Amino acid sequence: MFPLNLPELVSPWGANLIYFAIGLAFGFILESAGFGDSRKLAGQFYFKDLAVLQVMFTAIVTAMLLVFWAVSLGWLDYEAIWVNPTYLWPGITGGLIMGVGFIVGGFCPGTSLVSLATLKLDGAFFVLGVFTGIFVFGETVESFSDFYNSSYLGRLTLMDVFGLDTGVVVLMVVVMAIGMFAGGAWVRDRLVLAKKEETGT
Amino acid sequence: MAIGKTDVDPTVDRPVYWNSYIAGAALGVLLFTSFLLTGNGLGASGGIQRVIVAIEDLVVPSYVDRTPNLATLAGGDRKPLNNWIVIEILGALVGGFLSGLIHRRLRIETRKGPRISKSTRWAMAFLGGAIMGYGARLARGCTSGQALSGGCVLSAGSWAFMLSIFASAYALAYFLRKAWN
Amino acid sequence: MRHWTKWMALVLCLIAAGLIVKGQPSFETRWRRMETKYKPMLDSRSILIDPGELLQLLYDHGITLTILDVRSERDFNLFHLADAVRGDIDDLERFHWSELPSNAVVVVMSNGETDAVEAWKRLKLLHVTNAYVLEGGANGWLAAFGNPAEVVKREVIDTGGGSGDEVLAYRFTAALGGRHAVSRPDVKLEGTRVFEKKVKTQSQARKSGGCG
Questions:
Q1: Euclidean distance between CA atoms A163 and A173, whole angstroms
Q2: Residue C109 — very low, low, confident or very high, per pLDDT cuts 50/70/90?
Q3: What is the phi/psi pair of residue B82, to 5°?
Q4: Quick one: pLDDT at residue A113?
Q5: Which residues of C have a CB under 8 Å from any CB of A?
Q6: Which of B9, B34, B152, C201 is 20 to 30 A distant from A162 in Cα terms?
Q7: pTM for the complete prediction?
Q8: Where are the domains of chain C?
Q9: In terms of Cα–Cα distance, which of C151, C112, C133, C113 is closest to C50?
Q10: Is the ipTM beyond the 0.90 threshold?
Q11: Residue A183: what pLDDT?
């Protein structure tokens, strides 16, 4: 039954090799999707390019369907996989801060690494910034550790929050993602039309 | 319209990117594979944090041992770099490089909006990175570790986090439109 | 949206809808899959510990002890062990088991053994490494350490909603909860018991992930 206990199964060395391979595929896919390019990423927030939304939510929907079907068929043990614990307010505050960082800097930490790897200078500066930000966080977190550890709700899932069956929540996420794809494309097309009228072509 | 043609920048000669839905599906399968093999999703910012703490541990080891948040990673004889996520971001760097090489996108350049100078773009990238790094540690994960990995296993906190990133980025986008368009 | 994406959207919805029909595996199904691994521990009673051993654990500072009491709220309020926490068998997920320290020992107890064993099975499926069951439950504990003059058996057994061995066999005049004399007996009483030590602490497997 999955997940495997890699260090025991293939030695710590073998496990590291697998982690490296997973990282390799991760970086390759991000770059191939165009996520090394900050303008493409930022385009999401001006409805010029919907790649961020499309890649991210297609990935979430695909992985989610695979995970919960595997759990349902008894191949994967949901209790043994990592479900990020919920620290509600630190998470929301961190998310709001990151949204600002995204518009100002044009990357998230993962995509900036890929950008750096393809020799983009803005990516390199962003990575330096991330190092600085994380360093400053490590130095200052002690001063607000109460907030950092507040609203802790443990391994809380959307099923717990809504009191719904897993399948229903999964379907809701799929429908929401499709709605966002269609809605995003609709807005983008309207903006293109408006611009054409403006320029008279 | 042909698959993949939507994202070409006609002013620059470069091969097209993968279709977003196909890239997303590939990323989803990878994410699932990661859960199957390791029980973990993907991550990035945690690995960067460990690199920083490892450097601090070299320079000021006693300070690291006295600071709880740092000591959990590198206190005493703990090795902050001996962790899956560090190996994974090394892999991601190599993977990004290989993809750039194959798709002929390896070139020293700065991607920016047409109205700002290179140095403005660099300053903004650095500042945005710092804000992003700070927020990512406050939220205990970045877009990969929280939004993607936590989102697909339906963690409530990860979804709240994801919505707040999009909300704040869209709210601010208008005010910084000159930087990107 | 382009033509093929509409078809993909439909297919994804169908796959998700199929999950509703299929449902998620019940506790019984999941237990059956793990039975070969854990059933021998139950059959050999290697996870049932004597009251004497639990008394030792109560005074052992080298471990982090959690006593999980799965009896009804009524019985729990009448009497429970010092620092015990109460939980319903079907709601054990709400505890943060994945954050137990590596020296954690969890001992489950009910009035007898039936319910505690059921709870133990659920703990194993939640990957709690060092989980044990109190042999004889609360009744066994009271029999072992209660002063016969103070702790009196009930004459007419009021089942209180329990059944089989899951009935509190003693009479309490006040709801003392964890303040009862037998909630934390004198450590010297351990000498009155002859038992085989069964608790072996293995490092609690810690899950890590996210941007760890």
A1: 15
A2: very high
A3: -85, 70
A4: 94
A5: 1, 5, 9, 12-13, 15-17, 19-25, 29-30, 33, 93-94, 96, 98-99, 125-127, 207-210
A6: B34
A7: 0.88
A8: 27-181
A9: C133
A10: yes
A11: 94
